[in-house]
Structures are given as structure tokens and as C-alpha cells.
Amino acid sequence: MTKLLILNWKMNPATLKEALSLAKASDYKNVVVAPPFPFLEEVGKVLKKSRLGAQDLFYEEKGAFTGEVSAKELKSVRVKYVIIGHSERRHKFDETDEMVAKKMKAAAENKLIPVLCVGETIEEKNAGKKEAVIERQLKIGLFLYPRPYTLNPFIVAYEPVWAIGTGNPETPESALETIKYIRKILNAKPYTLNPKILYGGSVDSRNLRDYLKYKEVDGALVGGASLKKEEVKKMISYV
Ligand code: PEP
User: Fold this and answer.
1) Residue-wise DSSP of 149-171
2) Long-range contact list for 139-142, CB < 8 A, 24+ apart?
3) What residues flank ligand 1, with Cβ below 6 Å?
4) 190: CA distance to ligand 1 center in Å?
5) Rounded distance, CA 43 to CA 50, Å?
6) pLDDT of residue 10
7) Is residue 148 very low, low, confident or very high in pLDDT (cuts 50, 70, 90)?
8) What sign does the CA torsion over 44, 50, 55, 57 have?
9) Could you tell me the pLDDT band of residue 94, with boundaries at 50, 70 and 90?
């Protein structure tokens, strides 16, 4: 199966000029580029092969929600994918599983492809709670509200919180085991869901192949390394 690379720029770069230059260097098939909101429309115009992603959305359709962005607004600038429940949203902005579920619902209803991020903190890992945390995040995120997931595609990204932006990635073997565990939950009756499942957390051009070599790992969500053109060029040659 073709592997997918999602490039999460987070709150970078500082200017539209830099964003367009990075977007041009990231424009390859099997790549989703997720720039900050202000750059979405212009970045979308320069992407010919890769798809446009947003880093978040708000679940209401419109109205008095200062600072928020709706699914319809994202669609209007040709966004196709949206990252939901990223660990920085969960842990720096106190996003709850219920908010994540509402965002998943809004994305699905508007035919955006949601990328549901799940993953444990270091405290949860050390307390032996990794599986329970992931199961809870998946079940609330996907099933709190009924929606046509059997019809609409979605993606899951396994991102251990302690591995994000730390230069300390989960080992490929352990990431593989967790991805198999996620697949098992999504395939247990009454569910028969078969999304792409990605790994994310300090992935770069040196370690990407160690994850992608497993057929169960459908790709990677990359933060820091997605801001360096040379890194992007190398990583793209592996998907
Ligand atoms: C991310 O932003 O989801 C991420 C995995 O970041 P980094 O690659 O920098 O760890």
C-alpha cells in the first residue's frame, strides 16, 4: 500500500513568503501539507501534487466563536484533511475527548478527512496505562456521536506525547505493536473500520524508513523535520 506523509508545520513559518517556498519544496504525491490557518489558501494554490490539510477546526458551523475556524470555512479554501486531537491541542489547550469527538463529527459531516491523533503521556506510559488511554481516546473520538465512518475515510495517528518534538521517538517495534493494537480495537465487533494508521513523534529522514518498512504502518505524521527542505526531500523519496 502507498504510504502517506502528513507534514504538520505547527505555528511555523513566520511569513507567507517562507510558507510558499516550503510548500513548493513539499509538493509531492502521497503528501499532505498542513500549514497555519493564515497560509492555507495561498499554500493550496501552489500545491499541485500534494493535498492541503488544516491543523485543527472548531465544531460549530458559524457564529460568535472568536478566533475559531469551521469545517465549512476550511472546505471553502480547498482543505481536504484536518488534524484533530493533536497532543498539543489536548495538553496545551485542554482539549477533552468530548471536544475531539465533536470535531471528528464536524469534519466527517463536511467530508473532510479527519486525522485523529491518539497517544499517551510519559506518566500514563510509566503507570502501564498506555493501552487504556488509547482505547478511550479512540472510542470517544470515533463513537461518541453516530456518523457515517463506514462511508467516510478517516486516519488515525499514533503519537506518544513524550515522543513529540523531543528527538526521542518510540522504537519502530513498539510503535508497530501499538498500531496493531489500534487496528484490533477498530476491527473488533461491532466495528469493522480499516483506516490508515500512521506513526508520529520525532520522525525524520534518518528514522522514517524504520517505521515504513512495516506493512501495518501506513505512513508518518511529521512536525519539526517538515520545516527543513532537505529533510522533506529525503523523506518524500521513501513514501
Ligand atoms: C507532530 O507535530 O505531530 C509531531 C510528531 O512533531 P515532531 O515530528 O516534531 O515530533
Assistant:
1) TTTS--EEEE--GGGTTSS-PPP
2) 139/185, 140/97, 140/98, 140/100, 140/101, 141/84, 141/85, 141/97, 141/100, 141/101, 141/104, 141/116, 142/101, 142/104, 142/116, 142/186, 142/193
3) 8, 10, 86, 159, 164-165, 200-203, 221-225
4) 32
5) 11
6) 98
7) low
8) positive
9) very high
Catalytic residue check, 159: yes
Average of per-residue pLDDT values in the chain: 95
Compute, in angstroms, the gap from residue 204 CA to the centroid of ligand 1. Answer: 10
Domain boundaries, the chain: 4-236
The pLDDT of residue 191: 79
Alpha carbon of 76 to ligand 1 centroid (Å): 27
Q: Report pLDDT digits (tens) over 47-66.
A: 999 999 999 999 999 999 99
pLDDT tens for 192-211 read 889 999 999 999 999 999 99
Does residue 86 carry a catalytic annotation? yes
Instruction: List the grid coordinates of 87.
Output: 497532543
Q: Does domain 4-236 have CATH number 3.40.50.2300?
A: no
Overall pTM > 0.85? yes
Instruction: Convert 15-29 into a string of H (helix), E (strand) and C (coil).
Output: CHHHHHHHHHHCCCC
Q: How far is CA 217 from CA 78, 156, 201, 235, in A?
A: 27, 11, 14, 15
